[in-house]
Design goal:
Length: 131
């Protein structure tokens, strides 16, 4: 099965060997997305809501670059560093998924940079793309 690498315009260089997204058989797999700027610096330090918005905007760019939109998201893996940020994260999350919600899980863990409060990985089913 052929696959396509998805790298939105303006994307920075990843800090590890991965790409922002991969499209295969009408499914977009979005890598774990942290609240990084193009130079891999954490943005909105200390603000879980702003970091969540930044992460979801980055995910949105990957999915749109692949030809889909946020309503195509079927699953999210959410990693947060502190449950005290759960309500703020969910408030922003609900703005991006106002109708039928995707399936998801959410776990508390350490992230690759201490100032990062959230990381999200997504799967979106956008259907077959025309050649």
């Amino acid at each position: 099965m052929p696959k396509s690498v998805i790298i939105p315009a303006g994307s920075g260089t990843p800090i590890a060997p991965f790409v922002p997204g991969t499209l295969a058989d009408g499914v977009v797999y979005v890598s774990g997305t942290l609240p990084f700027d193009a130079n891999n610096n954490v943005v909105h330090v200390g603000d879980a809501a702003a970091q969540t918005r930044h992460v979801l905007e980055t995910i949105k760019k990957v999915i749109e670059t692949a030809g889909g939109n946020m309503s195509d998201v079927t699953f999210n893996s959410i990693f947060l560093t502190d449950w005290s940020n759960y309500a703020a994260i969910n408030q922003v999350y609900a703005e991006y998924f106002p109708g039928d919600k995707p399936a998801r899980f959410c776990i508390q863990c350490g992230l690759v940079k201490p100032d990062a409060l959230i990381e999200i990985a997504s799967v979106a089913h956008i259907g077959p793309q025309e050649a």
